[in-house]
Design a protein that fits this description.
Elements lengths: L2 E2 L8 E2 L4 E8 L6 E7 L16 E7 L9 E2 L3 E3 L3
Antiparallel strand pairs: 1-2, 3-4, 3-5, 5-6, 5-7
């Protein structure tokens, strides 16, 4: 879920309508590859399906920094293709 914390507040709120890039790094490599992007919903959620053809790690990344937002990434998710 993509969220923001407006200045002067201590609570987080949904950050909808923003582009989130989906990156993949094959096992044993240092390079991340852009697989595509998705736009967050009004509630901040986002999702997109991909088929992995090899072991590796997936991660969502928000890359639109401005005066109130920083570049951020979500939790990495490792997939073991069998």
């Amino acid at each position: 879920m993509l969220q923001e914390r407006p200045p002067g507040t201590t609570t987080w709120k949904a950050y909808g309508g923003k582009k989130v890039q989906i990156l993949f790094r094959p096992k044993g490599e240092d390079t991340w590859y852009l697989m595509g992007s998705v736009t967050s919903q009004t509630n901040g959620s986002f999702g997109k399906g991909y088929t992995a053809h090899e072991d590796g790690t997936w991660v969502p990344v928000f890359l639109e920094p401005d005066g109130r937002h920083v570049v951020g990434s979500g939790a990495e998710d490792y997939v073991d293709v069998r």
